[in-house]
Fold this sequence. Notes:
Layout: H1 2-15, H2 28-74, H3 76-84, H4 86-89, H5 96-103, H6 128-142, H7 179-190, H8 197-211, E1 217-220, E2 229-232, H9 239-249, E3 258-260, H10 271-284, E4 289-291, H11 299-305, H12 307-315, H13 319-332, E5 336-339, E6 343-346, H14 356-360, H15 379-393, E7 395-396, E8 402-404, E9 412-414, H16 416-426, E10 430-433, E11 442-445, E12 450-453, E13 467-472, E14 481-485, H17 497-518, H18 520-530, E15 537-539, H19 540-550, H20 557-564, E16 566-567, E17 572-574, E18 584-587, E19 590-592, H21 594-598, H22 600-610, E20 617-618, H23 620-630, H24 640-650, E21 658-659, H25 660-676
Helix pairs in contact: 1-2, 2-17, 7-10, 8-10, 8-13, 12-13, 18-19, 23-24
Amino acid sequence: MVASAVVAAYSAVSAYSAADTRPEPLSESQAQLRAVLLIQKFVRSYVARLHSKRRLNWQIFEAIEYMGEQDHLKLNDFFSELLSHAGELEADARSQSSAVSREQAAGENEDPDRRDTSRVTVEGKVSKADEKFLNGLRSAANSLTRDATANNFLDSIDPSVLRVSEKYSGCRLGETLSMDDVVALVESIKKRKKLHKKYVLQILIAAKQRFSKLPNVVEVSTSVLDKKMTVIGDLHGKVEDLLLIFQKNGLPSEDNPYVFNGDFVDRGPNSVECGLIIFLLSVVCPGSVHVNRGNHEEQIMNMRYGFIKEVIGKYHQAADVVIKGFQSVFRSLPLATVVDGAVFVVHAGISDKVSLDSLSRVPRQDYVSVLRPPYDITDGKLLEWKLLLDVLWSDPRAQNGCEPNEFRGGGVYWGPDVTEAFLAESGCKYIIRSHECKPDGHDSTHGGRVHTIFSASNYYGPESNRGAYIVLEKASGYKPRCIEFLVSPKNKQESSFRDKVVALEKDAVKQIQSVLAENAAELLERFCERDTEGTGLLPARVWADVITEVVPAKLPWLSLRRALVECERGGMVRYATSVDGNSVEVAPGKTAPLNIYKNRTQLETVFRVMDKDNSGEISPEEFKNGVRMLNKYLPAPIAEADIEGLAQSMDLDGSGTISFNEFMESFRLVQSAATAGGRS
């Protein structure tokens, strides 16, 4: 219709009898051509604006995600210390009867698919064999330390002593794992059935036994049968993406091998299922399924980004055992895979210190946490540790050289010169890595020598991005071929590009408003300092400068102002509107101050560390042990005699335990008092 109108207009112009000084009137064909050119120009401009908006939205999502990782890395020493000393501080006074009474919630007479995940209650009974087995495992889990012996957690476990209730409706695995078990597990997961803890441990034990025997860098060959090799990037708990890949590309087999390139857990809702499918496949098809470790196969990351919370919600009082079992497997995962000597597959990337030889000599299974070395650092051990961080945390960049990755807070940025040097030394043609979400699920850089693959679609929200996987074939010289996909709700057509950009923009604005809320107290203080006359207004550029000083996310704040703050005439903004209403409800009738909101994630992680039995509440004994660990970091440690009184004061409802709401409310009260006293 637009084209017809434009053509008609130009036809009218061509019919006009012009003066001699004017150019010759346009013919009909000339008018149509000009109309077409104008329409093309308009469409190109419109599409360019949409792409520009999409890039800006993407920049917002990446900045916020990496800002969270950066913040988490700053806290890793604190959290890893809490974890590593948990066993040492687990006093013998913690009675086994308490553990037994809580374990009874997972009794053999319950239907595990109908458990109330909101709170653990004492119901039913477990057999003495189950009780002894689970208590023994919990004791072993709580005694884990930072040394290499922590990796032996699964070695002496026999899950066959656990009985499976007749009411259990999930799949049942055979004593010898087979492809039939894979098919049964996949079908059970499609029906949203949870796998019994007995079979979870069976898979984890078998996977640990296989992975622990493998070298850091696994060399695989596809040339014998001229097979293809499929590489899967980050899945992040999105089991629908994994199943869609299998539907499109086939299940792994001798003729259809796969490499899973890490980060299959955290963030998404089905990390347990993704891990179990991948581990089971690696056991059943050991020559056809290869698994690399990612930066989220890491206990400290799992505490913050959802995996541990997911396990607790699904396995309740058996969660301790399942979590430690997964962590033991994570530590045994290889670091990289080389396909036919031509393609180096690694989760994040390389640095100027990474070589196949140096990487092969790292004692990877010694590291209970990659975010903290397992021993005192010497020069040689520091290089060893940095190699691990580099392959799990780094990102490529366009500029030559190798510099610390300050955007993420770990690993490096490496340039094309580093890529060329590594490929020349290793004899490989390409590097395939994951670690970064891309709009189309894949990207290439460094002259097509480095390829990024990301397999979790809808990562930042519905239709925010496509997922992809890579197929390598000898016939094409191993040049990566990317296949894109998108998981969509049934009977829903994929949205137009414009609708996708609009939806992405809304989600991006929500994310950035959340970031401003987290920093609201400091932002308001800085705004008021600049507003010397108390008008409530600031020039937009000053407003943007203040946010740049306070918020670590590097974003074009001035360009974003119309979505984030009320704009006035003359280039002024009403700065308070950019942080208005940003409080968080933590208890009935109570509103948390802004610094509570800012620290909510960290407080939730501390709460989870203290809640050793994963009940959702902190017992007095758990609180005592937690405070003893915290005392290591306090300038004025809390006296032993005061700990019990502190626990009682936080137990606001007198129930004998501390809930998360009470934990947060206690923090709010302390912060409010400190603010009133001028000490905050």
